[in-house]
What does this fold into?
Amino acid sequence: MEQTQTTSPHELKSFITIAREAYRLCKANIHALALLSAIPFVFVGGVQAIASVVDTYQNSSTTYLATFGIIALIFGVISFILRVAYPLVIVRTIDSIHNAPSIQTSAGATEGVDVSVMPATIPAVDPHALYMKSIKEFFPYFWVVLLSGCVLGASALFFVIPAFFVFAYFSFSTFTYLFEGKRGIQSLVASAWIVRGRVYEALNRFLSVGISLMFLGLILSIVLHIITTIALGSFDFNGVVADFILSLIITLFIMPYAYTCWYLLYRDFSVGVSAEIDPVFAKKAKYWAVFFSIIAGIALIAIPTVLIAAIASGQIYFTF
It folds into this structure.
């Protein structure tokens, strides 16, 4: 997709500014954001716990194993649904906080939750209502997630370098679904419309957020493994304990922060963008979205088929 000028000149906020705003917002509301993030984690943990029990007692009776298998399946389905709904839940919550009344803490007028303001009133969070509302949108939103995944997956698999630009163009599809009412391919087209002409700026900010959080995760992993090794000695499960604590920190704190940065970037890039998408641009964006979706569909069919054929012909074999 070619670079064109934005509808209205707008000086985008720097990565540092976005990071600070996201930090202040999350810090003031971490109890609510962590609670919402913990709900899918509980069911994911439940599936893993049941799998461990089944693995430990795999020589038990068939009835015993079948019972745990059914429970694991139920937990797995619930976990999958909650994980699909989670982005809608967390983004809706962040949006309600961002648009809440604010108090000025330093000179200078700002909009929303900026580095100089803090929320004066925190909207009440009802996890049940938020998740139920988002679960009711499971199928239309899952279609957006599936399309986005296919487009990004295919571009990354076959066109490694362009994949970064594809990601930059289509990364706001969740937000165009939520706040602009776009569905399916149109959510990707609307995302590309917001980013057009500023793809390098978008890529710079996305990479900055992603790399900084990956670096933070790496540091935390090293520190936790050192601490658990010192505390637990050479026990076999010290690595498991460290990984569990790390996944808990990522789920409760890093994920909400990442979505807050993503949300603030969407709001920043959306300023001054016309709601009317240029038909010529829309046609090109839709073409690329459909193209990558088809490539992904072919890959999903072709790769397993080739593997099965290779295994059947003896070209690939497994040893246990």
In short: The mean pLDDT is 82. The chain is about 75% helix and 0% strand. The two ends are 48 Å apart (CA to CA).
